[in-house]
Specification:
The protein is mainly alpha-helical. The protein is built from 23 helices and no strands.
Length: about 400
């Protein structure tokens, strides 16, 4: 099951300081839609502007390009603005965030660092870099930035929330829960702190407290799709399948593209043996995200339950193309081939799975059943015993030895 969608990134961008007299030049390009602001700023830039005013207008056009999703063009404007005002924290921060979205982490961190150097006693640039480090999964470094920000200003909820995200990234959920609690004490309306704490409670399987925090989250923001998604999972774990389906449906309705919610709702439908609905969700998840390996795997399992082995093999094959570790998928496809009576194909997959991961008991159990079906009694017994050597509770291997009258 998937639980990750909501990004933990956070960045506060200050408005660039506007020089005296500049407002008459650039007010038309600082309001309205990004589509309107870009040509308005471009027109202003055609005029005879002072260096400070030109820097501000370039900054504002850069923000408009970012709003349009054109971060490459935004970086060009921010860079031109910084050539005129190299120590402007707002522009450095805006360019850093654009670099992050362009997956240029080193350049982003350099800009955040430059913003910090402008004023070593300012807490905001530290918080911004801390969230960037969380996004880059450099959690220990992020904690150092949040610690420094808290030392400068212990009333900033964002610093505690960010440190909570970093601790959660390190699976240090007790510390994360304490940090999220500190953020909530500073700001009782901070929905992301409740949500982050719920995620830590979920990781600790403390579903009751997770439910409480998720209820608070959706009360604060009834349109928060990821909160419904997480609450659906919690309700499923607590046995409330109807409530879980309702929340998955809400998450899907609120999220314009939410394949993870489609996947999990499909998995729940499959668990309830509602396979038509499950397959519809898996199909839609794949349509929304064609490289979604987990959706192909789940759909393959549904086809297996429906004894449609050809389609199951096709989906396992596709999942294998997308997987980093295809040994478990090879094992699963071997079982499908065995069910379909294609024993040679089954054995080929089982051999590959064992060769890739020789320490997995279930892989030997699968190959043992295949060898048993081929009449290779001694080889089957050897595989079942190897499986038990790796896992004394491997029930399939015990059953195989019992069938072959080979129990010790």
């Amino acid at each position: 099951m998937l639980l990750r969608r909501f990004a933990c990134t956070f960045a506060i961008i200050l408005a660039a300081s506007v020089p005296a007299g500049a407002d008459s030049f650039d007010r038309d390009c600082s309001t309205g839609t990004s589509e309107a602001r870009i040509p308005a700023c471009t027109k202003v830039l055609e005029g005879n502007l002072s260096r400070p005013t030109r820097a501000v207008v370039l900054y504002r056009r850069g923000l408009a390009f970012s709003d349009e999703g054109n971060d490459g063009r935004a970086v060009e404007d921010f860079t031109a603005s910084l050539a005129l005002r190299p120590r402007d924290v707002a522009t450095l921060t805006a360019r850093a965030n654009a670099y992050l979205r362009l997956s240029k982490g080193d350049q982003a961190l350099a800009d955040f660092g430059a913003a910090i150097e402008v004023d070593r006693k300012a807490w905001l640039p530290l918080i911004n870099r801390g969230f960037a480090l969380v996004q880059l999964e450099r959690h220990a470094d992020a904690i150092r930035d949040f610690d420094a920000a808290i030392e400068l200003n212990a009333r900033q909820a964002e610093a505690f929330k960010g440190r909570g995200d970093a601790n959660r990234g390190l699976d240090n959920h007790i510390a994360a829960i304490e940090d999220y609690g500190a953020a909530i004490r500073v700001d009782k309306t901070y929905r992301n702190a409740y949500y982050g704490r719920a995620r830590s409670f979920i990781s600790m399987r403390d579903y009751t407290r997770a439910m409480n925090d998720l209820a608070e989250t959706v009360e604060l923001d009834p349109a928060f799709d990821s909160a419904y998604f997480s609450r659906a999972f919690v309700r499923w774990q607590l046995g409330d399948t109807d409530g879980a389906l309702d929340d998955y449906t809400k998450a899907i309705a609120l999220g314009s593209n939410f394949p993870a919610a489609r996947l999990e709702r499909g998995q729940l439908y499959a668990a309830l043996h509602r396979f038509d609905e499950a397959l519809a969700d898996f199909d839609e998840a794949i349509r929304e995200q064609p490289d979604y390996g987990a959706a192909y795997l789940s759909r393959a399992q549904a086809w297996r339950a429906l004894a449609d082995f050809d389609r199951a093999v096709a989906d396992y094959t596709k999942a294998m193309e997308l997987a980093r570790d295809d040994a478990p998928i090879l094992n699963a496809r071997a079982e499908i081939y065995l069910l379909a009576g294609e024993v040679e194909e089954a054995l080929a997959d089982a051999d590959k799975a064992v060769a890739l991961r020789s320490n997995v008991a279930s892989f030997y159990e699968t190959r043992g059943r295949i060898r048993e079906s081929r009449g290779e009694r001694d080889l089957a017994i050897a595989d079942f015993r190897r499986a038990l050597g790796l896992d004394k509770q491997q029930k399939g291997a015990l059953a195989g030895l019992l069938r072959l009258d080979a129990l010790p």
